[in-house]
Amino acid sequence: MAYLIILVILPAFLDISAAKRETCELQAAIGIRITICPFVYEKLTNTEKLVWLHNGTVIYQQDKGKVSVGKPEDITSSGSLVLTNPKFTSAGKYQAEVYNMTGAQMKSWSSFLCVMEKVPKPTVSYSCDKKSVIFSCNTGKAQDVRYSWTMDEKMLTGETRSTLTISLSKLKSVNSFTCTVFNQVSNEISDNVNPVCTSKSPSTQNLMCFQQKTVMAVLAGAAGIVIILVIVIIAYIFSLVCSQKSLKIKQPSQ
């Protein structure tokens, strides 16, 4: 029976959570001033009553020019609500209602506000291998952020991951790179990074190949000279032996 209750309640809870996410019509960043728009009532006068509610609780009330709840600076001249320092607790449903002097409602408006942390300023690090340089955009523990990259102040189309790979053959010593991170309420850009990587240029590689061939040719020539010297020495020794034998043969006949 307990399992049945859990199975019944859980889908309902998921549906409610999904509904709340779908009602996030406005977004705010923690600590960044925001004006709750698009509520505008240009005809607001001292004879009318303005009420703002947050999750059903009155947070601002102005009646006939006198503020009884909140502060005068909490709204604009058109009646929009100003949040000077939003917090996570600032999230929820906001309602604005305007009444005339007889108590008749002139305007009503509501919207759901979501509050998120602003993204931190990213830092960029890089490492080099034989063929490329790999950049990493570091944002600490920030979640649900998106990325973009620029090279020489021009956005790199399609580069939306936290890492970027550039071929060394395309890299110039004057190239500068930045990473931008953003979410629905804020964005930050890193400092410029000018990577320094060493690589073997084609001319150096060709030069090394030429030197290797030269060394092989020299070694082959040296080996040939050694063989010739060995042959000469053997021939010389052989001629000496033959000369001595011929002398021995001639001596008895005398």
TrEMBL record:
<dbReference type="InterPro" id="IPR007110">
    <property type="entry name" value="Ig-like_dom"/>
</dbReference>
<dbReference type="InterPro" id="IPR013783">
    <property type="entry name" value="Ig-like_fold"/>
</dbReference>
<keyword id="KW-0472">Membrane</keyword>
<keyword id="KW-0732">Signal</keyword>
<feature type="signal peptide">
    <location>
        <begin position="1"/>
        <end position="19"/>
    </location>
</feature>
<keyword id="KW-0812">Transmembrane</keyword>
<dbReference type="GO" id="GO:0005911">
    <property type="term" value="C:cell-cell junction"/>
</dbReference>
<dbReference type="InterPro" id="IPR015631">
    <property type="entry name" value="CD2/SLAM_rcpt"/>
</dbReference>
<protein>
    <recommendedName>
        <fullName>Ig-like domain-containing protein</fullName>
    </recommendedName>
</protein>
<dbReference type="GO" id="GO:0016020">
    <property type="term" value="C:membrane"/>
</dbReference>
<keyword id="KW-0325">Glycoprotein</keyword>
<feature type="transmembrane region" description="Helical">
    <location>
        <begin position="215"/>
        <end position="241"/>
    </location>
</feature>
<dbReference type="InterPro" id="IPR036179">
    <property type="entry name" value="Ig-like_dom_sf"/>
</dbReference>
<keyword id="KW-1133">Transmembrane helix</keyword>
<feature type="domain" description="Ig-like">
    <location>
        <begin position="86"/>
        <end position="190"/>
    </location>
</feature>
